[in-house]
C-alpha cells in the first residue's frame, strides 16, 4: 500500500449522492445527498455536532447500514446492492473499525481479540495468532498479548482495537471518536499511532467533534444536519497528497 | 467460521458462566437420568419375567380364564373354572402327557416348633407338577386316590423353608391354619431345588411357596356336566408328550374348552377360557410391562422437557447479555449464520454435556432400583445411545430460537447497547 494513487486504481471509498432517511413517526434525514471520495492512503476527518450524521456516514461506509438513496463503494465495489452475507464479508475484509468504547470481546485475550476478524474468514489459528502478535508489537503491546481487556488500561485497549482494525489489511480504517474515552495524554498517543498508520499508507476516516483532533488529518469534512457544510484542506499536519 | 472455532468460542462463553451452565445442564442430567432409570427398570423386569418363561419347557400349554380383552394381566386374575371333570377329559386328549391343576388355599398362618409365619395362601396341586423338577431333599407327596384319606404331606421351596428359623427340613411337622381357623397338620416330605419354570403363571420364582395335595383344596363347585360337587381350579397346565406337538395339543385343548368343557359354562360373562403357550403368555406380559415402562418413561420425559426449556431460557438471557458482543462480531465480519452457529453450538454443548452426565447417573439409578427390587440388571444399551442423541436434539431444539434471535440482532443497535 502506497500513498500515491495510480490512475486506474479505484478510490478507497466513494459516496455518490447518498441519502439515509429514518422513519420514526416522521422521516428524519440523517444524511441528505452527500457525495465524497476518499482516495487511497488519504486521512480524512469528519466533524460536526451531534445529530449531524457523522455516525450514519461511518455506518454506511462500514457496511453496517444501507443508504436510502445513492451508492457507496468500498475499494471499487458497490456495497449498497450486496446481500447481508456479502456485506458481512466486506466488513470483515475491507473495513477496520475503531470505536470510542473500544468494543473488545471481554472473555478473549488481546491477541484473540485482534485475531477475531480472521476467525470469520477461516484463517487457521496459528497463522492468525501470529499476525495478531505482529500487530500488537506494532502498536507497542507485544508484552500484553495474553491479557484480557479488563487487565488493560483504556489506552492499551484502544491500541488493541486499532491492531484488530488492521489485522485484515483493510481498504479503510474507520475511527469513531477514538480518543473520546481516554485522557488527553493517552489520546495524544493514540492520535500519534493513527499518524503512523497514515504515514505507512493506510486510508483513515476519523469521526470527531474536536477541532484539535480533526486538524491532524489531511482534510476535514464538516457535516451539519445531514449535509456537507464544507470540505477544508488542512495545511499543517499530514503531508498533502 | 468452521465448527472447531464455534466450539472453542462456545466453550469459552460457557466457562465464563460455570455455575449457570452447570445448573442449566442439571435439568438435562435429571431428565436423561430419569428416563434411563425407568427404562432400565422396565427392561430388567421384562428380562426377569421373560427369563422365567424361557426356563419353562416348550411343551407346556397353560389354561386360564381371564377377562376377554387383549393384553390384560394373565393368570394372576384367572378365575376358578376348571373342574376335575375337565382335568380328566383333557388328560384323554391325544398328545397330552399329563395335566396339572393348581389352585390356592387361603390361609392365615403356618407354624412349626413354636414359630409362626403369616402366609395368606398355599398352593394345592397334584404330584404330576413335580415330575420335571429336582428335589434338594425328599420327594413329592403321595397321589391322593379317591376315597383314601388325604395325605398329610407338604412340599416347599427353598425360600419357603428359609422362612422358619433353622430352615424346614424333611420330616418336620407344620400346622397350616386355614381360613375359618381350621388347622391341618402336615409333614414336610420334599424340598425343591428351586421352582424356576414350575409356576410361571404365579409370579416370580424366588417367592416362597408351599405345596399341598389337591385333596386339601377347598374351592368346590357343582359340575354342570356331571352334576356332582368337584374341586374347581383357576390354573391348569397341560404337558404335551412331544414338544413338537405343543401347538397341535394347544388347538385340541382349545377346541375342547370351547365346545363342551365345564370351564366354558362356569366362566363369568366377558371372560375367555383359553389355552396359551409360553410364547402367548410372554407376549402378553411383555405388552403389560412395556405399557407400564412407557407410562413411567413418559413422566420422565416431562422432566427432560423442563430441562430443555431451561436451556432455551438461559440461552435467551445469554443472547440478551451478549448483545454487544454480537454487534462486535458482526462489525468485524461475522455473518448471521456465524452468530447462529455459535449460539446453537453453545446450546448443543449444554444438551450433550447434560446427556453425557445423565447417562451414568441414570444407569446408577437403574442399578439401585433394580437392586432394591432384587432383579438382575439389564441395561437397555440402545437407550444409552439414544440419550446422547436426545441430548443433541434437546440442545438444537431449545437453542434454535435463541440462536435465531441472536443472528437477527442489528449490529448498529447492538454496538450502542450497554
UniProtKB/TrEMBL annotation, chain A:
The yes or no answer to whether the keyword ATP-binding is present is yes
- Molecular function (Gene Ontology), one example: ATP hydrolysis activity
* InterPro entries per record: AAA+_ATPase (IPR003593), ABC_transporter-like_ATP-bd (IPR003439), ABC_transporter-like_CS (IPR017871), ABC_transpr_LolD-like (IPR015854), MacB-like_ATP-bd (IPR017911), P-loop_NTPase (IPR027417)
Q: Where is the ABC transporter domain?
A: 13-240
Gene3D superfamilies noted in UniProt: P-loop containing nucleotide triphosphate hydrolases
Which CDD domains did the record assign? ABC_MJ0796_LolCDE_FtsE
Q: What's one GO-annotated cellular component?
A: membrane protein complex
Q: Which Pfam families match?
A: ABC_tran
Provide this UniProt record's keywords sorted from A to Z. ATP-binding, Nucleotide-binding, Transport
Q: What superkingdom does the record give?
A: Archaea
Q: What is this protein called?
A: Putative ABC transport system ATP-binding protein
UniProtKB/TrEMBL annotation, chain B:
**Domain MacB-like periplasmic core, residue spans:** 22-255
Could you name the domain of life of the organism this protein comes from? Archaea
Q: Name one GO molecular function term.
A: transmembrane transporter activity
Q: Which residues cross the membrane?
A: 21-43, 295-319, 340-369, 381-401
Residue ranges the record marks as coiled coil: none
Give the UniProt subcellular location, in the record's own words.
Answer: Cell membrane
Going by the UniProt record, its keywords in alphabetical order are:
Cell membrane, Membrane, Transmembrane, Transmembrane helix
What Gene Ontology cellular component terms go with this record? plasma membrane
* Keyword rRNA-binding included in the entry's annotation: no
Q: How does it sit in the membrane?
A: Multi-pass membrane protein
Keyword Cell cycle among record annotations: no
What are the ABC3 transporter permease C-terminal domain coordinates in residue numbering? 299-411
Family of this protein: Belongs to the ABC-4 integral membrane protein family.
Return the PANTHER family for the record: ABC TRANSPORTER PERMEASE YTRF, MEMBRANE COMPONENT OF TRANSPORTER-RELATED
Quote the protein name from its UniProt record. Answer: Putative ABC transport system permease protein
**Species annotation:** Halorientalis persicus
Amino acid at each position: 500500500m502506497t500513498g500515491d494513487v495510480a490512475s486506474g486504481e479505484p478510490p478507497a471509498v466513494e459516496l455518490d449522492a447518498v441519502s439515509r432517511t429514518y422513519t420514526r413517526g416522521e422521516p428524519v434525514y440523517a444524511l441528505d445527498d452527500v457525495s465524497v471520495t476518499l482516495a487511497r492512503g488519504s486521512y480524512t476527518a469528519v466533524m460536526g455536532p451531534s445529530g449531524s450524521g457523522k455516525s450514519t456516514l461511518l455506518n454506511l461506509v462500514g457496511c453496517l447500514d444501507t443508504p436510502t438513496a445513492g451508492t457507496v463503494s468500498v475499494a471499487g465495489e458497490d456495497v449498497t446492492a450486496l446481500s447481508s452475507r456479502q456485506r458481512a464479508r466486506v466488513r470483515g475484509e475491507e473495513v477496520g473499525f475503531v470505536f470510542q468504547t473500544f468494543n473488545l470481546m471481554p472473555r478473549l485475550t488481546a491477541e484473540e481479540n485482534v485475531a477475531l476478524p480472521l476467525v470469520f474468514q477461516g484463517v487457521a489459528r496459528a497463522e492468525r495468532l501470529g499476525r495478531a502478535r505482529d500487530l500488537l508489537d506494532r502498536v507497542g503491546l507485544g508484552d500484553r498479548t495474553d491479557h484480557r481487556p479488563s487487565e488493560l488500561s483504556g489506552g492499551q485497549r484502544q491500541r488493541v482495537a486499532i491492531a484488530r482494525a488492521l489485522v485484515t489489511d483493510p481498504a479503510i480504517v474507520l475511527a469513531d471518536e477514538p480518543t473520546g474515552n481516554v485522557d488527553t495524554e493517552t489520546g495524544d498517543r493514540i492520535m500519534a499511532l493513527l499518524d503512523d498508520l497514515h504515514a505507512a499508507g493506510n486510508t483513515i476516516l476519523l469521526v470527531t467533534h474536536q477541532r484539535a483532533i480533526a486538524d491532524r488529518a489531511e482534510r476535514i469534512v464538516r457535516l451539519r444536519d445531514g449535509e456537507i457544510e464544507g470540505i477544508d484542506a488542512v495545511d499543517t499536519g499530514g503531508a498533502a497528497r | 467460521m468452521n465448527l472447531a472455532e464455534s466450539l472453542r468460542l462456545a466453550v469459552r462463553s460457557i466457562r465464563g458462566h460455570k455455575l449457570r451452565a452447570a445448573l442449566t445442564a442439571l435439568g438435562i442430567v435429571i431428565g436423561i437420568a430419569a428416563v434411563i432409570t425407568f427404562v432400565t427398570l422396565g427392561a430388567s423386569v421384562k428380562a426377569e419375567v421373560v427369563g422365567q418363561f424361557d426356563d419353562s419347557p416348550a411343551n407346556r400349554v397353560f389354561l386360564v380364564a381371564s377377562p376377554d380383552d387383549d393384553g390384560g394381566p394373565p393368570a394372576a386374575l384367572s378365575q376358578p373354572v376348571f373342574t376335575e371333570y375337565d382335568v380328566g377329559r383333557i388328560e384323554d386328549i391325544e398328545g397330552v402327557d399329563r395335566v396339572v391343576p393348581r389352585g390356592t388355599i387361603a390361609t392365615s398362618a403356618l407354624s412349626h416348633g413354636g414359630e409362626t409365619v403369616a402366609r395368606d395362601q398355599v398352593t394345592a396341586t397334584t404330584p404330576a407338577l413335580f415330575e420335571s423338577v429336582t428335589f434338594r431333599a425328599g420327594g413329592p407327596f403321595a397321589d391322593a386316590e379317591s376315597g383314601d384319606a388325604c395325605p398329610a404331606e407338604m412340599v416347599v421351596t427353598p425360600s419357603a423353608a428359609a422362612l422358619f428359623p433353622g430352615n424346614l427340613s424333611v420330616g418336620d411337622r407344620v400346622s397350616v391354619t386355614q381360613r375359618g381357623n381350621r388347622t391341618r397338620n402336615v409333614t414336610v416330605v420334599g424340598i425343591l431345588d428351586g421352582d424356576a419354570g414350575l409356576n410361571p403363571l404365579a409370579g416370580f420364582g424366588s417367592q416362597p411357596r408351599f405345596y399341598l395335595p389337591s385333596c386339601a383344596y377347598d374351592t368346590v363347585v357343582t359340575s354342570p356336566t356331571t352334576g356332582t360337587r368337584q374341586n374347581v381350579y383357576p390354573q391348569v397346565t397341560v404337558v404335551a408328550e412331544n414338544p413338537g406337538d405343543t401347538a397341535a395339543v394347544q388347538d385340541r385343548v382349545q377346541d375342547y374348552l370351547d365346545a363342551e368343557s365345564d370351564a366354558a359354562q362356569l366362566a363369568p360373562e366377558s371372560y375367555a377360557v383359553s389355552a396359551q403357550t409360553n410364547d402367548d403368555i410372554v407376549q402378553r406380559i411383555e405388552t403389560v410391562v412395556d405399557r407400564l415402562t412407557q407410562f413411567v418413561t413418559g413422566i420422565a420425559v416431562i422432566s427432560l422437557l423442563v430441562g430443555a426449556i431451561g436451556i432455551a431460557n438461559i440461552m435467551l438471557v445469554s443472547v440478551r447479555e451478549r448483545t454487544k458482543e454480537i454487534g462486535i462480531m458482526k462489525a468485524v465480519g461475522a455473518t448471521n449464520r456465524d452468530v447462529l452457529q455459535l449460539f446453537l453450538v453453545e446450546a448443543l454443548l449444554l444438551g450433550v454435556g447434560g446427556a453425557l452426565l445423565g447417562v451414568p447417573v441414570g444407569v446408577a439409578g437403574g442399578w439401585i432400583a433394580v437392586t432394591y427390587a432384587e432383579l438382575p440388571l439389564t441395561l437397555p444399551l440402545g437407550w444409552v445411545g439414544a440419550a446422547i442423541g436426545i441430548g443433541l436434539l434437546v440442545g438444537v431444539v431449545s437453542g434454535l430460537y435463541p440462536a435465531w434471535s441472536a443472528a437477527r440482532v442489528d449490529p448498529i443497535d447492538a454496538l450502542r447497547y450497554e
